[in-house]
Design a protein that fits this description.
Layout lengths: L1 H19 L5 H10 L7 H28 L2 H28 L4 H4 L18 H16 L3 H20 L5 H26 L2
Length: about 200
């Protein structure tokens, strides 16, 4: 419980710090310029970015179906935990975007940042990255095996990188998304223990 509170407090202050720094963007823009090419049309990075939606869905549904098929209550609980984590991450992201109201890099820096397609609306935090890290951290907490943890975080990191490569988000958007996603997973893990594992 104490460690969960510490993680939540630290996550909150990291997100708050980045939210207050949205106008001091020089470092953010410089890093982004080094990642975002003039023609960011790599299908690899486009598909990696898109996987932030279907991988969490497959993980939730797949875990639940596996639990049903095996009559394994623990697996079904893991599916609930993953669902709560992803749902919480989406909720926090959707609340923060209009509050922070940060302009997308392609809109703020036309001719400097080149998005692969027109995207408008709130930039902070990165929703794709939040989803990816929420999923990766949940899977890592549920299945403490290197062959789950390493690929999960490599994938989540790739999603975050893809959002910068495609010109959709600043590095601080991605970092905040990772923190929110991991924080959501920890909270979900704690709730799961309280609600289901008595």
């Amino acid at each position: 419980m104490k460690s969960c509170k510490k993680i939540i407090n630290r996550s909150f202050f990291v997100v708050l710090f980045f939210a207050t720094q949205v106008h001091a963007q020089n470092i953010d823009v410089d890093i982004l310029k080094g990642i975002n090419p003039q023609n960011p049309n790599s299908q690899y990075w486009i598909q990696t970015s898109g996987s932030a939606y279907w991988v969490p869905a497959v993980a939730c549904v797949g875990t639940f179906v596996y639990g049903l098929a095996k009559h394994d209550k623990r697996e079904k609980i893991k599916a609930y935990e993953l669902f709560i984590s992803v749902g919480g991450a989406i909720a926090v992201t959707e609340i923060l975007k209009p509050i922070v109201n940060r302009e997308r890099p392609g809109d703020a820096y036309p001719g400097i940042i080149f998005p692969n397609s027109a995207t408008h609306g709130g930039s902070f935090p990165s929703g794709h990255t939040t989803l990816a890290f929420s999923t990766a951290m949940s899977l890592s907490l549920e299945y403490k095996k290197w062959y789950v943890v390493v690929p999960s975080f490599l994938w989540a990191g790739s999603v975050g990188y893809s959002r910068m490569y495609l010109g959709k988000h600043y590095p601080s958007d991605v970092l905040a998304g990772a923190v929110i996603g991991m924080g959501s997973a920890y909270i979900s893990h704690w709730l799961s223990k309280k609600l289901f594992r008595k």
